[in-house]
Every structure is written in C-alpha cells, then in structure tokens.
Amino acid sequence: MEFFVGADQDAGRAIRVSRYLPERRVRFSVWDESGTARAAVSLDDEEAARLAAFVTPPPNRRSSLLDDLRALVRR
Fold this sequence. Notes:
Helices cover 28% and strands 35% of the residues. It is α+β, with helices and mostly antiparallel strands and 75 residues long. The protein has a single domain, classed as Transcriptional Co-activator pc4, Chain A. Strand 3 and strand 4 (37-44) form a beta hairpin.
C-alpha cells in the first residue's frame, strides 16, 4: 500500500493504492483533507498495467548515429 499526495488545488488530498496479490487486483481510493475515503475503484492486473503504461513518461528519444552525423555536417 502506498499514499500519493495531491498537487496544486488537490493539496491535502491523497490517493491510496493497494495491491491485493491473491485476488490479482489493485484498488485506488481517494482521500480528502479530513482523512476520509471519498471514492474507490478496483482494477484487475491487466487494467492496472495499462494505467501504469499510460502514466509512465515516454523515454527520452536518443539520437541515432545518422542524426548525429547530420548534425555534424550542418555545422
């Protein structure tokens, strides 16, 4: 289980994420400033993996050798 704190106008709020291994699901609950859970949803492992892929920033594109050579020629 992990808590993730809100940012900006959501400061003071949090999302709690719990992983239930035997059931193969992940549960998200939204907590308000008073420490009360206001909403919750469970995802199966497949949807949780899709969510993880969605929130993961794309990798930095590394230039190819050809791109590097072209940049050198332009100088």
